[in-house]
């Protein structure tokens, strides 16, 4: 908390006031999993596959999202609670994490998943529309 406050204060007025309570809640987490993309790896893939080069940032987002879902599901199956945050949206926070963990400069923080005991019971599942209204099969 002591390290986070000056970083978020530097991010702009009111950032710490808005996010401080969230950081306070995360102090009890057992751990955090950080999801990074290597821009160098994306650029290398773009150079190798020029016809699809414009798609590789989107492909990276898809891959990161799939990893997040997979890890969250695995944690939940083991009885843990988790939440997903996007500290990369606050450049000073991402820079501080990068420096603290000695992460290469070409990496960009996509998300961080905190996990531990469930803080509260799962909410009721909302009603879903039937597949006939949400899925279209084209033959």
TrEMBL record:
Single GO MF descriptor: oxidoreductase activity
GO BP annotation list: cellular response to oxidative stress
InterPro entries named in the record: Frm2/Hbn1, Nitroreductase-like
Name recorded for this polypeptide: Nitroreductase
Organism: Fusarium zealandicum
Source lineage: Eukaryota, Fungi, Dikarya, Ascomycota, Pezizomycotina
């Amino acid at each position: 908390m002591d390290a986070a406050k000056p970083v978020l204060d530097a991010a702009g007025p009111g950032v710490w006031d808005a996010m401080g309570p969230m950081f306070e809640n995360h102090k009890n987490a057992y751990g955090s999993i950080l999801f990074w993309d290597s821009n160098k790896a994306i650029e290398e893939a773009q150079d190798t596959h020029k016809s699809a080069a414009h798609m590789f940032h989107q492909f990276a987002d898809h891959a990161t999202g799939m990893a997040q879902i997979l890890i969250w599901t695995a944690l939940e199956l083991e009885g843990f609670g988790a939440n997903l945050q996007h500290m990369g949206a606050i450049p000073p926070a991402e820079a501080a994490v990068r420096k603290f963990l000695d992460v290469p400069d070409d990496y960009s923080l996509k998300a961080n998943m905190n996990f531990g005991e469930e803080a509260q019971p799962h909410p009721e599942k909302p009603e879903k529309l039937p597949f006939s209204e949400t899925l279209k099969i084209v033959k």
